[in-house]
Amino acid sequence: MRGADPRVVLGLHRSRHERRLLTGALDLGVTALDTSTNYLGFRSHQILTRTAGDLLPKFTVSTKVGYFPGPGGVEHSLDPVRLHAGVEQAAMDLGREPDLVFLHNPEHSLREATAYHQEVLAQACTALDEAAAKGLCAAWGVASWDPSPLLSLIDTTAPRPSVLMVRAGLLAGAGTLDAADALTKAWGLGGGEVWGMGPFGGSTSAPVWERIDPRVFLRDGTRLSRVQAAFRAAYHLPRADVVAVGTDEPAHLGELVGALAGEVDERTILEYRSLLRDRSRGQPA
What we know:
By secondary structure, the protein is α/β, with parallel strands linked by helices. Helices cover about 40% and strands about 15% of the residues.
């Protein structure tokens, strides 16, 4: 078994939650799990407890609240009462208090920059802060796939999240990356408090990974695969100390852990971000 590496979190989005994946992760030194109340048809916590309850104490566990079962299927809500109840239910289903609970994609309900929506976000943050104060979770954060709508809604008098998790990687886009940087600064987040997620934009088998070679972002990428290079670069797009990544195969997870040995070329990253901004503004590359 390798020593624990806190830079990689095993994400369970779309995962089958198989026990062999968790034992494989522990063997690789990956000792953090990230799930959500709505994963696997709102059964993620119960299935984790049933299939690997004895392993969970060996992991730090983060989960998310914000999506709930509704009459039409799944609905998003930032209602403080529902959020607090969601954290309570998560602790019950996991058989332990989560180490971290994220407010899940708050932008889903906050598309307009109004004083009302600013208050909605502040109340949601307060609900999670109070849940942590009551011992229902050790800490709370914000997980956002599209953080841009949140920028104009931050209330500096509201509780501050301990962690921000945002979309990361070469496919994230200029707006997402710049918004992540701005939120990081606005909330005063530092080392270990910014996580990346979705470093491959959904799948390593997408055609884009055959058309580009991410190894150009590494100082010596010849010894790493394209997938490994893309994963390593995600730690700088935006700058994050931790990246959550999903897989059902321990071998793939091991490949990604091995990518951490790569050294990123900071200048190439900066040039790439500049090109992304130019393209988003309609300027020629």
